TrEMBL record:
GO molecular function: oxidoreductase activity
Biased composition, class Polar residues, residue ranges: 109-121
One of the GO biological process terms: deoxyribonucleotide biosynthetic process
Coiled-coil regions, chain positions: none
UniProt xrefs under Pfam families: Ribonuc_red_sm
InterPro entries: RNR-like (IPR012348), RNR_small_fam (IPR000358)
Protein name, as recorded: Uncharacterized protein
Gene3D superfamilies for the chain: Ribonucleotide Reductase, subunit A
Region spans: Disordered: 94-121
Biased composition (Basic and acidic residues): 98-108
Species: Pristionchus fissidentatus
Length: 121
């Protein structure tokens, strides 16, 4: 949509929501890292992230009507998976969904379409 100059306000709103989401994610990660008294086991954290990624992926796939496929549900699913991997990596938990090459390919695709998508790295 951005490349075609369509729905400029929607694109701007989505970019602002992405910035807000990134900030909230980073604050949550930092808060978790600073609290050494109530650490959740790594397996539990990974299970929580895996479940969140599965729910978000299902939502993206089911919520985007076929008429709006140009939004790229594959790219959105890739962003969800990359965000989950990013959280696990920042928490020093091995991310298992993507290889490093897959993540780099995804980042290249999304960074060319949305300037704020590079925050998912």
């Amino acid at each position: 949509l951005k490349k075609r100059g369509l729905m400029n306000m929607l694109v701007q709103s989505m970019e602002n929501m992405q910035k807000d989401h990134t900030l909230r994610r980073d604050v949550a990660i930092m808060t978790y890292q600073m609290d050494s008294t109530n650490k959740v086991p790594a397996k539990k954290v990974q299970a929580i992230i895996d479940e969140a990624v599965a729910i978000s992926t299902k939502f993206v796939v089911e919520a985007i009507p076929k008429a709006m496929e140009e939004l790229g549900d594959d790219e959105l699913v890739g962003c969800v998976v990359s965000a989950g991997d990013h959280i696990l990596t920042r928490l020093n938990i091995k991310a298992k969904r993507h290889s490093e090459e897959d993540q780099q390919d995804q980042q290249k695709r999304t960074s060319s379409s949305t300037p704020t998508s590079n925050r998912l790295k």
